[in-house]
């Protein structure tokens, strides 16, 4: 009875000071949804009607106020895709070779890095069934096996990004956090867990939001190896357009996945289906490669990709909150044990 009442009080207290905010420095509990983060962060198309949110993982203020602007160093998100002075596309066209399924998932979550986690992509994908992997990556589930190789092609448009500046080291902790730091006792794992439950395991060190279009090409291993070799020795820019088209056509690929938007925005996906169609000999299919060196299409896409999905996230452990180095070490030890357990068991 008492236990239950206490729990409810704690739950209410946490709820009142935690909300769903993607802000620098806020505390986030990586354990509460390890393996399921794609439920609370929009990183792949979802089957939901409410498309308004990007990030709904609860976060908590852990530093004293006024940290929002003082620490923010705005990032220039543009690898400009043209030599002219005004870029046609503010973003990045990227191709990644993946020898197997694990590398494909790793590639998809390449820009998500969580301190002390060796496989941050698992925090999103560990719960995904084979059907879910197929759906999220836009390929047929018969190709989600150990017998294939993949190329992930992605065009990302960043809209908003922020990164903690160097001044973050001098931040003062919120009083409530300071108290909870005092309550953590070396040798007592439960006190660390209690801290994590209230304020999180990590804090948000940088993030970027926007939208992207991506597509997965599936190959059988011998053909994949020859393409990978060809591109490694020649570079994309040295290949003729015909050769490039051929390598990424049904001529070479076993299967060409759907073009999907990270946010799942149907308007953008329909635009891609209509405008990125390629005719290559007998084949007709849609391909992101059509954007390659096509200024008109890129310019159009630049305006279509809005601020709808989470594209990058870097989390840092909350350990700097512990000024006492022995306490800090204990915090690491407990968290590491939990993280290893998750990584092994999911
Ligand atoms: C999406 O939701 C609709 C309606 O709820 C359902 O019929 C459909 O099977 C779902 N699709 C996926 C891929 O889950
Ligand atoms: C910091 O954020 C709070 C709430 O989000 C806002 O009310 C306040 O004006 C911001 N501070 C500055 C200096 O912009
Ligand atoms: C393109 O080919 C030339 C000559 O074969 C070579 O010198 C150059 O390094 C290649 N470029 C790339 C990006 O590999
Ligand atoms: C989807 O993208 C289109 C084109 O950028 C935009 O007009 C529309 O508002 C977006 N829809 C949602 C639900 O975000």
UniProtKB/TrEMBL annotation:
Signal peptide positions on this chain: 1-17
SMART domains named among the record's database cross-references: MACPF (SM00457)
Keyword Translocase appears in the UniProt entry: no
InterPro entries documented for this protein: MACPF
Name this polypeptide is given: Torso-like protein
Domain MACPF residue range list: 151-340
Organism: Zootermopsis nevadensis (Dampwood termite)
Keywords linked to the UniProt accession: Signal
